[in-house]
Specification:
- The protein has 261 residues and is of the alpha/beta class.
- The protein has 2 domains: 5-16 and 112-257, HAD superfamily/HAD-like (Rossmann fold), CATH 3.40.50.1000; 21-104, no CATH class.
- It has helices at 21-32, 41-54, 60-73, 81-104, 118-127, 140-149, 153-156, 173-184, 188-191, 199-207, 229-237, 251-257; strands at 5-8, 131-135, 160-161, 192-196, 211-215, 242-244.
- Strands 3-2-1-4-5-6 form a 6-stranded parallel beta sheet, with helices on both faces.
- Strand 4, helix 10 and strand 5 form a beta-alpha-beta unit.
- Helix 3 (60-73) packs across helix 4 (81-104).
- The mean pLDDT is 94.
Length: 261
């Protein structure tokens, strides 16, 4: 196990600090996106939802670029992507601050804002000698701060990969995953496993010849053990080898990986 490198996405895979970001973004899009002729509110919402989730796992500036393109296609005058980004981050930032403040004030434990069973799962991998990484589409400084807030720095150290900032369009999980492989001289077939709730990290891990595990937690009912069936389907279609709703009962994962003592 000490030659195994485990890559985790952050938001929705380990952390719930940003849970609900999709709903925040959807509300933003519906405020800015003109309706097409004869289009119902329900159809416009469904279209926006598909567009947002098609880019899940990539930095949110790409979603803001797509929003601007759709506004223009529908006859509107779009803002520059970075202005949409600032607007989205202001909305999301209010939610994040409420949650991180509640940890610091003692109103909630850090584990309240983690996917069920995540901390014990990380502890078991660490004890087995695996090297753990985070690869996230969220800017690295923000992920790093949230890693400290949730008290999981000891699992990852500085092995956190992400965009340098909110308008960094050069970052891609493909490059991050391949840089891990190259930096550690890995045979990905034997030594690379990714856990994620987005199609990007799943598909990129498979393209790199690693093993990919879908984490399809229900982000509306935290710690319930329920599957998000739409997420599960998307990740299966992206090529996931195995799927779990959370980390609460990991025996199946350990068996599938060949055993972790």
């Amino acid at each position: 196990m000490n030659s195994l490198h485990i890559v985790f996405d952050w938001d929705g895979t380990l952390s719930f600090i940003r849970a609900g970001w999709g709903e925040v973004m959807l509300r933003q899009w519906l405020e800015f996106l003109p309706a097409a002729n004869g289009e119902s509110t329900e159809n416009r919402s469904a279209m926006a939802h598909r567009e947002i989730w098609a880019l899940n796992g990539r930095p949110s500036i790409h979603q803001m670029e797509r929003l601007g393109a759709l506004v223009a296609e529908r006859g509107g005058t779009p803002w520059p992507p970075d202005r949409y980004q600032d607007d989205f981050q202001e909305r999301l930032g209010r939610l994040i601050r409420e949650r991180t403040d509640s940890i610091r004030d003692g109103a909630h434990t850090a584990d309240h804002y983690m996917v069920r069973g995540a901390r014990a799962f990380l502890e078991r991998f660490q004890a087995a000698g695996a090297t753990l990484h985070i690869v996230s589409g969220t800017p690295r400084p923000a992920v790093s701060a949230e890693v400290d807030c949730l008290g999981v720095r000891g699992f990852f150290g500085e092995r956190i990969h992400g965009p340098t900032g909110l308008t960094d369009t050069s970052f891609h999980k493909r490059h991050a995953i391949r840089s891990i492989i190259e930096a550690h001289g890995l045979d990905p077939v034997r030594s690379l496993v990714s856990f994620g709730d987005g199609a990007v990290e799943i598909s990129e891990t498979k393209l790199a010849a690693g093993r990919a595990i879908a984490v399809a937690a229900d982000e509306e009912h935290w710690h319930s053990g329920r599957w998000d069936e739409s997420k599960r389907q998307r990740l299966t279609e992206a090529g996931a080898d195995y799927a779990i709703p959370d980390y609460h009962e990991p025996s199946g994962v350990w068996a599938w990986l060949g055993g972790v003592r």
